[in-house]
From TrEMBL:
Gene3D superfamilies noted in UniProt: Jelly Rolls
Domain TehB/YeaR-like: start-end pairs: 26-100
Region called Disordered, residue ranges: 1-29
UniProt name for this protein: DUF1971 domain-containing protein
Amino acid sequence: MAQIEKAATQRHIPGSDTAPPSQPYRSSPVFTEATLPLALQHDHRTKRGVWGVIRVLEGALLYCLEDGSPPRILLPGRPGIVRPDEPHHVELMGPMRMRVDFFDHEPTLLEDG
């Protein structure tokens, strides 16, 4: 996720009051099946204290945790939660658009945004 964090389009200082708690402090660019970084398709993890929300905007994406749990299909309105320092990767299933939102606390997903 370091590559996504470097390419982030929105910035916030964790612990500051510049973004409401329900808002990400940073968001990745929107990726397509053609622009999804290879680093995200291989095992990686967020930094300590950083939560991620993988949001599929169009299409579908397979979200795989390295803890042995079954892969999960992510769809628009059905995001994937990435816990801090949790090894994971995503796999393409066809055409798609997605982004990752980053939080400095466990996100509450009342609605997909």
